[in-house]
Specification:
The protein is α+β, with helices and mostly antiparallel strands. Helix content is 29%, strand content 29%.
Length: 418
Amino acid sequence: MKFSQLFLPVLKEDPAEAQVVSHKLLVRAGMIRQVTSGVYNWLPFGLQVLRKVENIVREEMNRAGAQEVLMPMVQPAELWQETGRWQKYGAELLRFTDRHEHESCLGPTHEEIVTDLFRRNVYSYKQLPLNVYQIQTKFRDEIRPRFGLMRGREFMMKDAYSFDENKKSALESYATMRDAYHRIFKRLELDYRMVLADSGSIGGDHSNEFHVLAATGEDDLLFDPNGDYAVNVEKHDAENCPVAEDQLEKAKGIEVGHIFYLGTVYTDPMEVKIQGQEGNLQPVHMGCYGIGVSRIVAAAIEQNHDEHGIIWPMALAPYHVGIIDLRPDDEACKQAAEKTIAALSEKGLTYAHDDRAEKPGAKFATMDLIGLPWQCTLGPRELADGLVEWKNRRTGERTKLAVGELPAELSNAMAVAA
């Protein structure tokens, strides 16, 4: 992809409304633009990152045996009234009335919709276990949308729902999804922790949160650096904590995933029963599993940046390599660009080629800002010796290689990601 053809409206200054690093850099790097409070346009580079998160999530959901569906954003009031959440959910639930005086809401989550889908189509234990998921836009009418994608009103989320014939089977489904979440966050190359958590407005008696560790996180976490114990402080019980208080470390976390064992919290009020193995009607046990797909994009930046801009992990980068062409009108630079692009394409690596007629300083600043993991600089001086300069964006390390030769670390990183 050539910069001269890209829609990449980068800014030199931080936007006045931005308070956290991810918001500042996403706007400055031309990845998002605000439409109204808490609602954003995704521009090409930002959408590339969002799709990479989606793809990793989708692959691991499929691997775990979940099946993808797509449910409506608009939800009828009567389903929420069955569970009592129409009254309980609060002002974050955006309610509206259509021309036929029928009440509906914009879905912040889909427990009622998916439970209704289940009860209309599943009747026997022989059809279980069942797990369905979607990646879809949600809406929560936040009173104070802030921090860009971290706490918006409209956002992208993956939500999955499992159905089982008893608690034992439901907890097995829960464990399967928990393992899938670990694979997802490892593939995203993020430093994260799974912690015990409160179930909040979703319900149920057991849940775990997944947090990306970052100084700007809104949640306080406690964890044993030498063991498995980790907890959100709101769930921490100092008197009953299998680990001594002085052995726990504190950290700030950004919640990017939450899994719940729901039991019959939704299936009981919605009168969902199936035929059991003995021929009797029995309740159905549920689990639900959310991942903030768009929030992960922001959280990754909060954890991966410096004073110059974003530093994308290879798994999330919109492109793997940024080619900085200092003299796009020079024949030697043109040939070097073609040879470099061919070498990258052969290895399955993606690139963005800055072929603009801009000053070198502006090109270097833009490339650091957008945070592609590797930079390849083509200049007449080095090319006279048959060399180009490669820079690792994360470490800042520079090396000169023959035209068409790729850094071993770049090729190895791609092999690991694949």
